[in-house]
Amino acid sequence: MSMPPRLLIVNCASPYFFYIPMGSFGLCDFLAQRGVEARIFSPSLYPEAESGQRLREALERLRPTHVGLVCHWQETAHGLLAALATVRDWSDSVVTLCGGFTASYFAEDLLRTVAELDYVVTGDPEEPVAQLLEGRPPGEIANLVWRESDGNIGRSQQRWLMDTALLDRLSFADLSVLDDARRYLDKITAKLGFPLFLGRGCVFDCTYCGGSRHAFRLHSGRQAPVVRSLAAVRSDLHRLKPWTSVLYLCYENDPAYIKTLFRVIADDPGLRGHFVCHYGAWHLLDAEFLDLYRRAFDCAASLPIFEFSPEVVDDARRTAIKRGATYTLARMEDNFRAISEAFEGRARIEVFFSRYHPTLTVDDLQREVRDILLFKHRMICQELPVHVCFDHLSTDVGSRYWQDHQDRPRDFARFLELKTGVDQGRLHPFPVDNLCLLIPDQLPRPFVLRLEALLLVLDELERHGHELVHLLLAWYGDRWIAELERVIGPMLAADDPAAWFAAPPLDALLAALGQRLESGHGGSPPPFLADLFRFSRKKLAQGRGEAPPPVADEPQAACFVLDPNRISVHEQDYLDLVPLLRCLHERGQDRLTYRRTVYLYLAGGILCLSHAAYRNTLRPFERPTNLAAHRAMLAGDEGGRQVRLLDQLVREGVLLPTACP
Asked: Are 129 and 68 in contact (CB under 8 A)?
C-alpha cells in the first residue's frame, strides 16, 4: 500500500528576506481541503549554523513524500540550493518541486542546472501541486515543468489560473501549519507585521519590478489580477486575531477596494481597533482614506508606518519608469503634511528613492543626489515624520529592466554568478544595500565610483552628524556638495577603492571640507562655521565608538577634574536643530542669536547644558575640586538635580579622580 502524500513547504532562506510568501499558507489550506497534509518550515527563523539541522528535524517529523521549495524573490536563490542539499542528504528519493516568481521565471534552466530538483511549478500552484501529489502524470498537469528520463526538459502547454471563487474558499491566515509560528510572528512584528493577502497580480507595470503586470505575464502567465472578496478577507482577519495584532498591507491595485475594506473593519466590533496596520501606498492618501484608517485600526499602540516609492525626483522620469502617471513630488510633500496632521505627528513615513534606473544619465544622477538631500532638508525643517532612503536599485528578474539588459535573461547559472559576486562583495568595489546586479553601461565606471563615495560619506555624515549636513544645506543650499566632491576625489584616487569604502577617512574629509568652506569656496561662510565643524568632528568621534565606556566602580577620591576630551563649548545649540534652521532660512545671519552651549560626551549620547548651568554646576571642576564640598554647596530642588548630574558624570568618567591641591 502506497504512503499517502505529504508535503513540506520550505521557505528558502535569505539574509535579506525572511517573509514567507502568502501563497504558501493558501496552498496548505487548499491541500487540506483535498485531504493532503502540508506544513511550512522557514530556515530563516534560525541562526544559519543550525538551520540545516532544524530542517532535518522537520523532515523527520513529517516524513514528507514531497518537498516544495519556495524561491519567490531572487534573493532566496542560494537558500534554495542550501535547502535542496539538506533535503537530498536526508533522502535521495523524496520528490522535490519548486515554485515562486524566480523559480517560475528560470524554470527550464533551473532544472537543467540543479540536478537535485525534480519539478518546477510556474505561476499559480494550487491545482498543479495537488495533482502532482495525487500521482497524475506530469504531461497532464498544467503549469508544470519537469525533467524527462533522458534529461530533456518537458513543459506543460496547459495554463491553470486561480479565480475569485476558489480564492475566496481558501484561508491565507492559518498559522497552525507553520513550524515555530510564534517565532515567525515575533520576527515579522518587529519589521512590518503579518501581510494581509488580498489577491494575485498587479495593475501596475513598473519597469524595475519582478511583480509587475509585465513580469506576471512572463513568469506566471497571468494577464490580470484576481482579488478576494471582502467577506473572505474579513474571515481571515478574524482567524488572525488570536495570533497577532500587527498587519502589513501592500496591495493597492484599487484604492476604492481598500477604503471599502477599511469600512468593513471599522463596522465590525470584533475587528475595529484590534490591529495596527502598516501600509505600502501606491497612491497618495486622501482625507477619506485617512479618516477610514483611523476608524478601523489601532493608531495608539505603535506608530503606523506608511511607505511610498517615488523612485526618482524628476516627475517626468517617474512617469516613464512606472509606465504611467502617478503623483508629483510636490503633491507627495503636500500629502505628507496631511498625513502628519491627521495623526498629530504620530506616524512614520518611509520614502524610497533608488539609484541606477537605466534611463538616468550622469547629469541626472548628480542632480538626484542634490535634490534628494534638499527634499530631506525640507522634511526636517517642517518637522515631518519622514525617513528617506536612497538605495541601490534591486535588479528583479522578470522585470523589463532585467529583460532589456541581459543577453540571456533566463540563464540561471549566469544570474547565480552575478548574485554570488554581490554577496561576496566582488561585483562592485563598494557596498550595496540591495541585490544590485546591474549598473547601466552608459555610466562610466570612474563616475560610479565617485558617486558611491559621495553617497557613502553623506550617509555617514547624516548618521553621525546630521546637524552639520542640514545647517550647511540651510546656509549654502546644495553648493557645498561640489566642495565635498572635490575633497573626496584625491583621497579616493590615492587608495585602493575597496579599502577606502571599507573605512572612509571621515575626519580627514571633514577637516578638508571645513578648510575649503572657510576659505570662501561655495560662497560666504556662516559666522559659526569653524565652531560647527569642531562640534561635528567631536560628535563623529563619539558616534564611531571613540568615547570611553562608563567606569566599572565609582572612584573614592576626594577631588575630581573634568576630562577635557569629554566636553566642548560652542557658539550655538546645534542639537536644537530645527529652530536654528528656521532662523537661517527666515532671517539669515543678521538676527542670529548667540547661544553659548556646553556639550558633555557620554557613553549613551550627548548631554546639553546652557552655559549658565555649566557655570553653576561644573565650571569649578575645570581645576581639581573637592566633590563632597561642592555637593554640600548645592541646595534645593535645583541643587538636587545638580548633585544627580555630578554623580552621573563620576560614573561616566567625565569627572576624573585627581589629587587635591
From this structure: yes
Give the whole-angstrom CA distance, residue 57 versus residue 51: 10
The CA-based angle 194-198-200, given to 5 degrees, is 115
The answer for residues whose C-beta is within 8 angstroms of residue 52's C-beta and 6 or more apart is 43, 82, 86
Q: What is the gyration radius of the CA atoms in the chain, in angstroms? A: 29
Closest CA to 262 of 288, 296, 300: 296
C-alpha cell at 467: 546637524
Q: Do residues 43 and 12 make contact, with C-beta atoms less than 8 angstroms apart?
A: yes
Is residue 147 within a helix (H) or strand (E), and if so which, with residue range? strand 144-147
Reduce the DSSP state of residue 570 to 3 states and report it: strand
What is the rounded distance in angstroms from the CA atom of residue 19 to the CA atom of residue 278? 15
CA 633 distance to own-chain centroid: 52
Segment 105-129, tens digit of pLDDT: 999 999 999 999 999 999 999 999 9
Beta-carbon contacts of 1 under 8 Å, excluding residues fewer than 6 positions away, are: none
Tell me the pLDDT tens digit for each residue of 591-620: 678 889 999 999 888 999 998 889 888 999
- Opening angle at CA 363, ends 514 and 476, nearest 5: 30
- What tens digit of pLDDT does each residue of 372-385 get? 999 999 999 999 99
Report the alpha-carbon distance of residue 177 to residue 25 in Å, rounded: 8
Closest of 252, 250, 232, 342 to residue 292, by C-alpha: 342
DSSP string, 488-540: HHHHHHTS-HHHHHHS--HHHHHHHHHHHHHTTTTSSPPTTHHHHHHHHHHHH
- With a CB cutoff of 8 Å and minimum separation 6, the contacts of 138 are 119, 132, 144, 146, 154, 156
Q: Of 243, 21, 240, nearest to 123 (Cα)?
A: 21
Residue with cell 562655521: 529
Contact between 422 and 428 under an 8 Å Cβ cutoff? The reply is: yes
The pLDDT value recorded for residue 636 is 63
For residue 612, count CB atoms less than 10 angstroms from its CB and return exposed for 0-12, middle for 13-18, buried for 19 or more.
exposed
The residue count of the chain comes to: 661
CB 175 within 8 A of CB 166: no
> The pTM is what?
0.93
Between CA 103 and CA 122 the distance in angstroms is 7
- Supply the DSSP symbol for 89: H
Which amino acid does the sequence have at 209? Answer: C
Asked if 86 and 55 touch (Cβ cutoff 8 Å), the reply is yes
Separation between Cα atoms, residue 170 and residue 599, nearest integer Å: 60
41 grid coordinates: 518550515
3-state secondary structure labels for all residues of 292-358: HHHHHCCCCCCCCEEEEEEECCCHHHHHHHCCCCCCCHHHHHHHHHHHHHHCCCCCEEEEEEEECCC
Q: Is 513 exposed, middle or buried (0-12, 13-18, 19+ CB in 10 A)?
A: buried
Profile the chain (661 residues) by mean pLDDT over runs of 10 residues.
Answer: 88 89 97 97 94 96 98 94 97 96 96 96 97 96 94 94 96 97 96 96 93 92 95 98 97 94 98 97 97 96 96 94 93 98 97 94 96 97 97 92 92 94 90 89 93 96 95 96 95 81 93 96 93 94 63 71 93 94 79 86 90 90 92 74 89 91 83
pLDDT in tens, 450-465: 999 999 999 999 999 9
Cα dist from 417 to 79, 411, 449, whole Å: 14, 10, 22
